[in-house]
Amino acid sequence: xxxxxxxxxxxxxxxxxxxxxxxxxxxxxxxxAEEAVQEAFLRAWRFRAAVPSSEGVQPxxxxxxxxxxxxxxxxxxxxxxxxxxxxxxxxxxxxxxGIVLVDDTHRTVVAALADLPEHLRVVVALxxxxxxxxxxxxxxxxxxxxxxxxxxxxxxxxxxTDHRLLGLRDGKTDRAxxxx
Amino acid sequence: xxxxxxxLNELIKEVGDSIEVPPDGPRDILARRDxxxxxxxxxxxxxxxxxxxxxxxxxxxxxxxxxxxxxAVGIDRRSTTTSRLGSAHQFASGxxxxxxxxVPAPGVPPGAVGGANGGSAxxxxxSPGGTQAAASTAQAGAPDAAGPSAPAPAPSAGPVxxxxxxxxxVKTGAVSLVVSKGRLSAAVDELTNTVxxxxxxxxxxxxxxxxxSPTGDLTLRVPAASFEALLARVRSLGKPTSVTxxxxxxxxxxxxxxxxxxxxxxxxxxxxxxxxxxxxxxxxLNVEQQLSGLQTQIEQLQGQQRLLNDQSSFGTVAVHLxxxxxxxxxxxxxxxxxxxxxxxxWSHARRSFTRGIQSVISASGGVAxxxxxxxxxxxxxxLLWAVIRRRLV
Lengths: 180, 393
What we know:
The structure holds two protein chains of two kinds.
Chain A: H1 8-27, H2 30-46, H3 57-75, H4 77-80, H5 87-94, H6 104-114, H7 118-129, H8 134-141, H9 145-160, H10 163-166, H11 174-179
Helix pairs in contact in A: 1-2, 1-3, 1-7, 2-3, 3-8, 7-9, 8-9
Chain B: H1 5-18, H2 25-42, H3 51-94, E1 102-104, H4 112-118, H5 127-140, E2 168-179, H6 184-197, E3 201-208, E4 215-223, H7 227-236, E5 239-249, H8 251-277, H9 281-311, E6 314-323, H10 341-364, H11 366-392
Parallel strand pairs in B: 2-6
Antiparallel strand pairs in B: 1-2, 2-5, 3-4, 4-6
Helix pairs in contact in B: 3-11, 4-8, 5-8, 8-9
């Protein structure tokens, strides 16, 4: 993501890909993620004067993206019953062009993430994919760092005992092995 | 087997990175941004105000703050006035038969006022003194006592040495007293004797001694010097539930009366001279008519002055007596009788806390109200801004 305040083009160049992928991990739908990220960047640009000087652009942009995703989730009633996460929807996440590269490991991880409640999914995506610190996540979701810590702990507890993830073989994923 | 943190991190990172990013996404966003910009340029923008507008908003906020500060000071002044009126009302309700008296200030000979202005006849003799006396009345903060003998000071003009004007103070007091059961008539007798001993007298006495709650109302007048002694004696007779005393400076009123009398007398003397020189019947009748009017006015003013003089040496205390009801009489020591130590301590603490808050507010005046208002506005603004920001982003 962008490190400093600048033009929208700069923000997009640096931040579009991670923002889109984070949104995909939260929303499990490429079309929705694309829509949410587009909306988020436009909002961010429109209200760029509100960028807090203390925390920088990156957490702020993530905040905009996460809020857009959450709005999307809440406005889309389909999502309320989206716990049953089928293989077709996993393809929605990875993208049609990426299907050939997707192996069972990826499907399993996406399915396990999809089963998490949204408040846990958000912190997992921000922590493990976007690489934000607990403090930065707290700023993004507008909660105390302690809350973030407890949510992460709960998410890890669920994922670490998820039978689908436990069934995965040790070491690198199939994709990583095939690349090697 | 449990999936460890590192493995989880690795898996999610890898899955995230494998998600293909739409190549046209950034371009679409830029195109929509341009589209929005052009439409905003065509139509007035309804979103977050631009910088000049924010400057205007800041200016408006500053003006609002100033107006609020002014209102806070106004409220403080009004509340001061209200509390004065409130105390006057309390006094009036406590003693309906009080007549204010005028008391010369200690160390001032009774005839000093008349003597001070005797040499300078005319309405022009008193203004600075009157003004000063009016100012001292305002500073003293004395409530306006009801009564025909205390009209507002009339404006007058003319020089007089300020030191020649003594201050005159109306001293009044009201005490509500609870005496022990069956002690009401004894207390009335004792008060009557006390007043007589101090050289005063009882102007009004009412008592209702029948029934379960006998009460009595006395209006006592004693020489000014004994006013405080009488109050102390009254308070010692029982448990006072409310004590109100007030002093009203009526020097301006007295001096003004004096000046008006002298002015009218001077005019009358001139008319008398004219009368002695008049030869025509019409002139004589005209002058006599004027003289008659003047004389009436002089006598009215002198009557008022005599009233003030008459009352000047006595202070007035209205006493309301009532007998303690059984619940107020200290109960004999025993289990489950009377308030416990805890409840007494609690009620004392509560009263002290309330008094403390009141005294802090009254001591700080408008500043506290202003600060509270500013803090509330700042807090609300901060909260609003946080909400708006969360909504916006």
